[in-house]
Amino acid sequence: MSDASTHAATQSLSHAAQPFSAMPRLAIIVAGGSGTRMGADRPKQFLELLGEPVLLHTLRRFADPAVGVQQCVLVLPADQFETWQQLCDQFAITIPHAVVAGGESRWASVRNGLGYLAQEAQGIVAVHDGVRPLVPTSVINNTYIAAAEHGAAIAAVPVKDSVRGLAQQGSYALDRSRLRLVQTPQCFELNLLRQAYRLPELPTFTDDASVVEDLHPIRLVEGDYRNLKITTPEDLIIAEALLRAFGSA
Ligand SMILES: Nc1ccn([C@@H]2O[C@H](COP(=O)(O)OP(=O)(O)OP(=O)(O)O)[C@@H](O)[C@H]2O)c(=O)n1
Ligand SMILES: C[C@](O)(CO)[C@H](O)COP(=O)(O)O
User: Per the record, where is site Positions MEP for the nucleophilic attack (predicted)?
Assistant: First the structure.
């Protein structure tokens, strides 16, 4: 990180010293993907979990008054607006949110979501995968609070399994105590996230922390093993079991 970019990031974060309660909370829920690994007849965010779309479960978590989000932007594939409108009618979804068209990659979808937020908007913005419907309210709150204090904070959990790296020939053991599995929400001071998303996309960007980290250190917040990302068919079964057992945590 160059001194100039550090300085710019620090300057843009000057108001982050306010108490977290004074920082408006914004959310971008990215659901612009097509769900190729799920292999279903529609994008996985529209599949049902206990009779309701995955995306409705996720939206509800962010609409919880205990979280206090002021503005929620939902990013959808451009060709799925009508599907979502039908689901809103069918499930009588009244949670206020704006709908924005996604892009070719998660990065492009987040950038489009950010572009929707007014230039004069300020506060802490959470980016959350639409396909993480089980995120506990406490994880959302703790990530917002940490970002208000530190500028950038993401949820992550320790690795439970042994892990090996691949070498040209064979493989080698990795020290799992030094690894974390990254989740969402990933929360940032809004101007910092905007600054990061003005830079060109790199193939190494797999989440928002990887986009921001050259500009600003990332604080890790304790995530939750229930906060799984629905990616392949067995995840739906696990998510339903977790929902039955824990409801909205
Ligand atoms: N162009 C994209 C790609 C992904 N996402 C969102 O980013 C989150 C995490 O992505 P992933 O699980 O990879 O979703 P898909 O891209 O839909 O799945 P796959 O990679 O299996 O096609 C999801 O909520 C997904 O909808 C997005 O908004 N825009
Ligand atoms: C953002 C994320 O959910 C953190 O684990 C993940 O990186 C998304 O990855 P994917 O490649 O889009 O599945």
Answer: 176, 229
